[in-house]
Amino acid sequence: QICNQHNAEAPNLEQVFHRMAQTEPNLDHDVSWFLLPSYWAKMVVALISFICFANSYDGDFVFDDSEAIINNKDLRAETPLGDLWHHDFWGSKLSSNTSHKSYRPLTVLTFRINYLFAGGFYPVGFRVINIILHCTISVLMVDVFSILLGGLQFSSKGRRLNLAPKTSLLAALLFAVHPVHTECVAGIVGRADLLCALFFLLSFLGYCKAFRENKEGHNFSIFWVLVSVILGAVAMLCKEQGITVLGLNAVFDALVINKLNVLELIQKLLRKDKSLENAGLLRKGLLFRITLLMSGGASILYIRWRIMGTGPPAFTEVDNPASFADSLFVRAINYNYYYSLNAWLLLCPWWLCFDWSMGCIPLIKSVSDWRIIALAALWFCLIGLICQALCSEDSHKRRILTLGLGFLIIPFLPASNLFFRVGFVIAERVIYLPSIGYCILFTYGFSLLSKQAKKKKILAVAVLGILLINVMRCALRSSQWRSEEQLFRSALSVCPLNAKVHYNVGKNLADKGNQTAAIKYYREAVRLNPKYVHAMNNLGNILKERNELQEAEELLSLAVQIQPDFAAAWMNLGIVQNSLRRFEEAEQSYWTAIKHRKKYPDCYYNLGRLYADLNRHIDALNAWRNATVLKPEHSLAWNNMIILLDNTGNLAQAEAVGREALGLIPNDHSLMFSLANVLGKSQKYKESEALFLKAIKANPNAASYHGNLAVLYHRWGNLDLAKKHYEVSLKLDPMAPGTKENYNLLRRKLEQLQKKGG
């Protein structure tokens, strides 16, 4: 009797698949929407997703792209491929205490392939791949949503059927055109989220294939379950969120394949009901599959932990202020407020910003703060949805709501601060995957409204309007991600209290040479965050260049006081002190910088300049030699060594250093010029001439190059050529020191020769 009862409540999986369409209501029935064949539906989704982000294809490297791509040595051919497996996303060793621990070797590998195929750092290739990836993911979403909204059913030939063609198309379109995805698609660093999402979806679809009937008539395929686990591991090697697909596969198995009633199961557990196995938990195969998923997930996490080497990354208070709050209440309130803001970005993605840290969202410190309303609204909605997902008598409704909540919440968990501190307040890129859950809930809500509405076409037009607005918003936001200037300025209206926004606008202006405007934004960044040492350092640098040395020293001194191991600020403080002729303090600042950053070629270079000013020539040469050992292409250090040896009469040594430098940097015209001067003084006129001419070819508008070549010809007795190059030099720079006097001497000599000849 027990066996018969079990069979009555738990039919064979083949029967479940073939009866699904009859036992569950069709979500498409009351929806007024486009009905397209699967192929055309996917073509439409691909085309619209391409239109949304196509205008970002020819943009620059922006924001984090510089660190992750341009400054990442793991992209270069000379770096062994094996290093990718021991470095983080930014190219630092995972074992380093300064590493962010973001382990994404497969994403870095795709960047490296981009770099090698393009033959350098050309952003077009990187950006086009991102757009193609998003289009591919959006197309896959048609299949994913057809399963999530319509259920999983196969034909007698083992082909999966789409039981919700209208709603799956709508949900896929909502996903394809969601403006919150712009950061992932138009920002090259978002490649990590795109690749993670791609393998995440392939893992889910692979898991679904495990339940396709095969020739042996087994209920499921262990092979496809294992493939799903492997694809989940690949997703995690692209970005950490990828591991969450294994949890979602387990939820899908329980709810869709085994039709588990969660509320009924909980009630039986609480009552310790002996008929617990009838609830479906112990149904044949479910526990085995979940065990496979859990074992695979645990193994992947263990390997990931072993590779990471040390503890979690060390973030600062400005990255995530709530996580540093002393009060558990303040932390909890603010974390929940962040969740509500993420939910709002999904609902109304109008206010988008590249960075939400540094005061963009002030902490909630009291229950009297009106923003508490946002928390209440979030939990009111979530509790309502959870109650419906658990308690509804409609099994179809329970399944869709639970899957929607699952896809909304589970992929977001790694970014929730619940398990470990994260290095951001809000990051639009981390809701790329959770937006799948939002699209499920939105589409299901639309189907319920359509069922009740008398004028279904008006409702359909409204949804079409939302899609159109989102397409336009995507296009606008994509254009802002094309350049740093547009991106940073777009954030000023969204996060005016964010010191980092003002800092980045200032830095962009400074890079373009607009120092006056840059100073204004740097000052505002320091005002908003009085401990913002990077803004102080950059502002101090500009003031130093403008010879406002007193204020520059104050800012840099404050920066190193706040952050004593800030090597760059120590070096810049040394430069200012050197300019103020406080040489002992400058020397001390330089050595402090080197203490905190041992491999610091620029600091050794500046230290060498200090020693040269003090006529400590041996110390200067040693400092510059250290700079070139650490950075063989350090042209300024090589040049200063050649010039110092030349000026002190060590021509043979100067020549040897010059040849060594040109061997390492063969196309540096300043080195050619310096070595040419040395060779000229050594009366090696032919070789000196060749180097001067090569330097002039590389930089034809340098007056000093023409002037010194003229001096060479003057010494050599080539007076006509000397006259020609003196004249070119004076034309380029009429005030060139010494050139006019030498030219007048030459003219007098030529006149004397003409008189003698006459």
Automatic annotation (TrEMBL):
This is dolichyl-phosphate-mannose--protein mannosyltransferase. It comes from Pluvianellus socialis. It is found in: Endoplasmic reticulum; Membrane. Keywords: Endoplasmic reticulum, Membrane, Repeat, TPR repeat, Transferase, Transmembrane, Transmembrane helix. GO terms for biological process: endoplasmic reticulum unfolded protein response. The chain crosses the membrane at residues 39-57, 106-125, 131-151, 188-208, 220-237, 243-266, 286-305, 372-391, 403-424, 430-449, 458-476. Residues 311-383 form the DUF1736 domain. Belongs to the TMTC family. Pfam families: TMTC_DUF1736, TPR_16, TPR_19. One of its GO terms (cellular component) is endoplasmic reticulum. One of its GO terms (molecular function) is dolichyl-phosphate-mannose-protein mannosyltransferase activity. The gene is Tmtc4.
